[in-house]
Amino acid sequence: VQLQASGGGLVQAGGSLRLSCAASGRTFSNYGVGWFRQRPGEEREFVAAIYPNGDIRDVRDSAKGRFTISRDNAKNTVYLQMNSLKPDDTAVYYCAAAIWYPDLRRAQANYWGQGTLVTVSS
């Protein structure tokens, strides 16, 4: 599985962005997919994850009510809708796919995409 993240950019605080993670490979629907972020000098942290069939979704506490993860297996794509963005959300965002869903909460995955930069100005 190859993953391509996109949708990052510069936005003012309170604004919105939608990140996309496009996957290649016919077995994409077998994988849980997560979004992670990394700030300079910090470790990568979990943001959100979604089960292969979309029935289970997890979002980090600081993003609950603001971020929504969804997927369209017909399009091999997972989305992260980010609303009410804060300067603290500024980071490089990565998507990743894991065959074992619990791995995503530990920032472990079988496949990683390249990052997309999100910058939120105050």
> Structural class, from secondary structure content?
mainly beta
Helix content: under 10%
Radius of gyration (CA) equals 13 Å
Sheet having the most strands = 7 strands, mixed
Query: What integer is the average pLDDT?
Result: 95
Enumerate the spans where pLDDT stays under 50 for 5 or more consecutive residues: none
Order of helices and strands: EEEEEEEEEHEE
- Percent of sequence in beta strands: over 45%
Number of helical segments?
1
Give the N-to-C terminal Cα separation: 37 Å
* Overall outline: globular
Describe the structure.
The chain is mainly beta and 122 residues long. It has 1 helix and 11 strands, in the order βββββββββαββ. Strands 2, 4, 5, 6, 9, 10 and 11 form a 7-stranded mixed beta sheet that branches. It is globular, with a radius of gyration of 13 Å. The mean pLDDT is 95.
Name some characteristics of this structure.
122 residues; mainly beta; 7-stranded mixed β-sheet; 1 helix; 11 strands
Quickly describe the structure.
The chain is mainly beta.
